[in-house]
Amino acid sequence: MRTSISDASKLRALIDREARRAGFDAVAVTTPDAIPLAPGRLAEFVADGFHGSMDWIAETLERRGEPTALWPQVRSIIVLAMNYGPDHDPRAVQAKRERGAISVYAQNRDYHDVMKGRLKEIAGKIVARAGGDVKVFVDTAPVMEKPLAEAAGLGWQGKHTNLVSREHGSWLFLGTIFTTAELVPDTAEDDHCGSCHACLDACPTDAFPAPYRLDARRCISYLTIENKGPIPHEFREKIGNRIYGCDDCLAACPWNKFAQAASEAKLAARDDLREPPLADLLQLDDAAFRSFFTGSPIKRIGRDRFVRNVLIAAGNSGDLSLAGTIRTLIGDASPLVRGAAVWALSRLVPDSEFAERAIAALKTESDEAVKNEWLLALPNPIESHA
Question: Which H or E run includes 349?
Answer without folding.
Answer: none
